[in-house]
Amino acid sequence: MPTPLIVVTGTGTEIGKTHFSVSLTLFAGKTQKFIAIKPIESGSQKAELSDSARLAAVSTLHVKHPLPCCYSFREPISPSQASRQENLPIDLNLIVQEIESIRKQADGVLVELPGGLFSPLTDKQLNVDLCVQLNPTRTLLIVPDQLGAIHDTIAVERASYRSGIALSGFIMNHPKDADRSTGTNADEIQRHCSIPYLGSVPRAQPHEIAKGLSELWRAIH
């Protein structure tokens, strides 16, 4: 049986994917050799710790590979644009090969994709194309619990289905600034989408969030 591979994606960027991924890695790492990877990252010139470094810090398996971040770009723009600016082509096959190698050493692997599921990685390839190649056991969609969440989730579900991706479920992430729709979006999304609702993530530190992930973990295993 292949090692479980969880892909974490979202309806957009800066919506809490890394925060959730860190929390889930903390939970999973308590009982197994678990590694979380963000193979493509832009905006690495920021002063704070990079997303890939945050994920590596909480992983309980560390390997000597080009990963956890094969491609790290300085500018906070789409990977396809950053790749052209820095003259560093992104090779999805390389990423897939490295992750497959790591799966042989781990009990579980989490891969966080940059941006939204349909963000461009190259001139011709999107995040969803990488997801198809990875063939994950679970694909989780992070959705910010704010105005626009309903449309974005419906759109991503329909487009992902046509692209050959079966989303395993969606998770609502509490936004920094709540609005009138916050707390109501999950119910409305379930009226229009067939993907399971796996729960919501509060605004809290990852160690606190991890304490409440046992039910979600059971749902995806």
Automatic annotation (TrEMBL):
Pathway: Cofactor biosynthesis; biotin biosynthesis; biotin from 7,8-diaminononanoate: step 1/2
CDD domains: DTBS
InterPro entries registered for this protein in UniProt: DTB_synth_BioD, P-loop_NTPase
Highest taxon of the lineage: Bacteria
Biological-process GO terms, alphabetical: biotin biosynthetic process
Keywords, alphabetical: ATP-binding, Biotin biosynthesis, Cytoplasm, Ligase, Magnesium, Metal-binding, Nucleotide-binding
Cofactor(s) needed for function: Mg(2+)
Amino acids binding substrate: 42
Pfam families from the UniProt entry: AAA_26
Residues annotated for Mg(2+) binding in this entry: 18, 51, 112
EC numbers for this chain: 6.3.3.3
Top-level enzyme category: ligase
GO cellular component, one term: cytosol
Family in the record: Belongs to the dethiobiotin synthetase family.
NCBIfam families xrefs: bioD (TIGR00347)
Protein task: Catalyzes a mechanistically unusual reaction, the ATP-dependent insertion of CO2 between the N7 and N8 nitrogen atoms of 7,8-diaminopelargonic acid (DAPA, also called 7,8-diammoniononanoate) to form a ureido ring.
Protein name: ATP-dependent dethiobiotin synthetase BioD
Organism: Pajaroellobacter abortibovis
